[in-house]
Amino acid sequence: MKQLITWTALPNGFGTADDGITPVLKLTVRASPRLTPESGGTPIGSFNDFVNWTGKPWSFSVLFGDYPTSGPVTPTATGVQPVNTLRPDLWKKFFNGVPPVIVRDRKTGDYSHPVVRSFPAFRVQEFIKQQYTAIALDFPTELPSPREVYGGGRHNKANFSLLDFSIPETRDRLKKQLNSLIANGVVPCNYPSGISNDDAVQLDFYQAEYFHAFKGGLHENLPKKPELDFHKVLALLGDYPELLRALALVFDLELPVPAGIGTISEPVVRVWPENPLIDEVDSKIALATRYDYNNAAKVFSAKAAGSLIISGHLDLSGDEFSVAQVDIDGSAIKAINFTQTLGDLGIHKPPVLGTPKTAALPALRSGGMTVLMSDRASELVKTLQNSTGFETLLANEADRKTIKFNAEDIVRGYRIDIYDEAKG
User: Fold this and answer.
1) Same structural domain for residues 98 and 143?
2) Less crowded by CB within 10 Å, the N or C end of the chain?
3) Does the structure show a pLDDT above 60 at 156?
4) In whole angstroms, what is the distance from residue 46 CA to residue 64 CA?
5) Across residues 361-373, what is the average pLDDT?
6) Based on the domain organization, do 214 and 239 belong to the same domain?
């Protein structure tokens, strides 16, 4: 059996010591165990370090700056104790209960050439807004006929016919066209100049439909109950940071501000545990994280490689961001289904007795405020490709020291935070 455990430092701002005055740096450390059983499924208790993982006497060493080119490593701080409360009883319930959690070989996907499907939500929203506005202006006090909605309003402003995918040949054409546009794992946000505005609308909405289409097997084939091994349980716990802290998979550290931290030539930080672990070469892999430090502004955060993350905040001032106040996904699917219904109301076949003579637009639903980012799929492709590169480096002991994370590599998500530039 083998174990490989990485320790990732996450700069987490400034705090104050117990005296309420002395500033301290806050670091969060993420432990990521990767266990390899001898064969088949092995109970987690067979790995001695994980019988009572949470109950170990944890303390940490912290290093600011890169490893020296030769000689021993001298940590910047030692004996740093976690400030979060650990719960050994929870570890026993989660992993060593009856039956115990099983460890199976961890499978690593190859994301060196991923294909990510998305759809241009902003343009979909704009088209829906245009259609609804046109109908409202043309018919302020009465409902339009299906033909007027489908084929254009009285002033030819509304045109839902672009969303008529009821003909199989239309879907086949759009599917082939989209597949031919894929470059670097995504359909580009901006289509080539040869695509007309009408074709662009169809491609936008077809992508929305494809994004939400059922992609499973036959409906009569019931899904199988998933087998949750140790690694899958850890992945699921990623959405519950408080549990991660209680289970000693995330540690919160506080340490005095080191002298000269702002003048270090290679501003990276590493953290590793001091208590004994089996096979320490592979169990104490301290991965480096680049950081931004500004004592005056009280900034201590992961450093971004690009321009979207500034001092730990996502900068929403760029043109690539916009805000929506309707449920765009639901609105897109409703618009497509509505158009196909219009086709049965005297458009594709003659009306019959009882065919409605008017058509009301589907009600739009508000999902609160949604922040949209254009070409986000490309950013996701880069993240996936970077992760595959890190996996390759991690497999070789000599290459591990070269792994240096940027903020984009370790950010899992964002929370809403309000900052007033005028007040600071």
Assistant:
1) no
2) C
3) no
4) 35
5) 90
6) no
* Of residues 257, 327, 266, the one with CA closest to residue 299: 257
Predicted confidence band of residue 354 (pLDDT cuts 50, 70, 90): confident
| 20 and 52 part of one domain | yes
| CA–CA distance, 144 with 160 (Å, rounded to integer) | 13
Residues 291 and 328 in one domain: no
C-alpha distances in angstroms, 198 versus 160, 163, 189, 204, 315? Answer: 11, 10, 16, 10, 33
The pLDDT value given to residue 290: 96
354's CB contacts (< 8 A; 6+ apart) are none
One DSSP character per residue, 348-366 reads SS---TT--S--PPPPP--
Start-to-end CA distance of the chain, whole Å, equals 53
Q: Which residue has the tokens 């009856």?
A: 98
324 in a domain, yes or no? Answer: yes
Instruction: State how far the Cα of 287 lies from the Cα of 394, in Å rounded to an integer.
Output: 10
**Separation CA 160–CA 342 (nearest Å):** 9
- Print the domain residue range for 176: 121-219+320-373
Closest CA to 123 of 247, 5, 207: 207
| DSSP secondary structure of 83-151 | -SPP-HHHHHHHHSSSSPPEE-PPP----SS-------HHHHHHHHHHHHHHHHHH-SSSPPPHHHHHH
**Helices in 279-401 by DSSP H: which ranges?**
280-283, 328-342, 376-394
Pick from 255, 270, 303: which residue ends a domain? 303
What pLDDT score does 153 carry?
A: 46
**Three-state secondary-structure class, residue 182:** coil
Q: Are residues 214 and 329 in the same domain?
A: yes
Residue 359 counted as domain residue: yes
- The amino acid occupying position 339 is T
Query: Which residue type sits at 371?
Result: V
Residue 272 lies in a domain: yes
What's the CA gap between 190 and 382, in Å, rounded? Answer: 18
